[in-house]
């Protein structure tokens, strides 16, 4: 499974917003410059994150983006699932129960492997918070 730039850039943007939190809002232009991501693409990602309630937009001269929740309450899974949609490794389990995605779905033994993999990926992403990533970033900054 390969995640798209939506996830990698979105996570970097969220980390920038989180690291800037003590100073207040951070502008899209500042995130763009710091992370090397185009303003237009960042705006698309931040819009999705805002609709999910992970970030808020502040207007005005000192405006920009801030987190809508505490860093300990936002997981990497929240960010990735917001930006990617489902994170299933194969289409047959993404389609859901009772779907006609595959004629062999009801008796498919390999499907058990893909379901277990999807759960492991989800559990891993959900186990890491933005707070933990901020702590790691601070450690790296001190070096």
Written description of the protein model:
Helix 1 packs across helix 3 (39-51), helix 1 packs across helix 7 and helix 4 (76-84) crosses helix 6 (110-126). The chain starts with a helix and ends with a helix. It is elongated and about 60 Å long. It has a single domain (5-142), classed as Winged helix-like DNA-binding domain superfamily/Winged helix DNA-binding domain (Arc Repressor Mutant, subunit A, Orthogonal Bundle), CATH 1.10.10.10. The chain has seven helices and two strands; from the N terminus they run H-H-H-E-E-H-H-H-H. A two-stranded antiparallel sheet has the order 1-2. A hairpin with a 5-residue loop joins strand 1 (55-58) and strand 2 (64-67). With 143 residues, the chain is mostly helical.
Short characterization:
56% of the residues lie in helices and 6% in strands. It has a two-stranded antiparallel sheet with strand order 1-2.
Features:
two-stranded antiparallel ribbon, 2 strands, 6% strand, mainly alpha, 143 residues, Arc Repressor Mutant, subunit A, single chain
Task: Indicate the mean pLDDT.
Answer: 91
- What integer value in Å does the Rg equal? 18 Å
Terminal CA distance: 33 Å
Structural class by helix and strand composition: mainly alpha
Q: CATH superfamily, please?
A: Winged helix-like DNA-binding domain superfamily/Winged helix DNA-binding domain
Helix content: 55-70%
Task: Please tally the β strands and state the result.
Answer: 2
Strand order of the largest sheet: 1-2
- Domain count: the total is 1
Architecture, CATH level 2? Orthogonal Bundle
- Unreliable runs: none
Main sheet characteristics: 2 strands, antiparallel
């Amino acid at each position: 499974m390969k995640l798209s730039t939506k996830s990698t850039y979105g996570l970097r943007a969220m980390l920038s917003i989180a690291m800037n939190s003590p100073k207040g809002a951070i502008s899209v232009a500042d995130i763009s410059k710091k992370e090397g991501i185009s303003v237009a693409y960042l705006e698309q990602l931040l819009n999705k994150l805002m609709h999910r309630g992970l970030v808020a937009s502040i207007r005005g001269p000192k405006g920009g983006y801030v987190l809508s929740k505490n860093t300990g309450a936002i997981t990497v899974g929240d960010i990735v699932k917001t930006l990617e949609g489902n994170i299933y490794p194969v289409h047959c389990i993404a389609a859901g129960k009772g779907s006609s995605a595959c004629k062999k779905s009801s008796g498919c033994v390999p499907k058990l492997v893909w379901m277990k993999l999807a759960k492991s990926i989800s559990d891993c992403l959900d186990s890491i918070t933005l707070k933990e990533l901020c702590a790691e970033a601070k450690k790296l900054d001190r070096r």
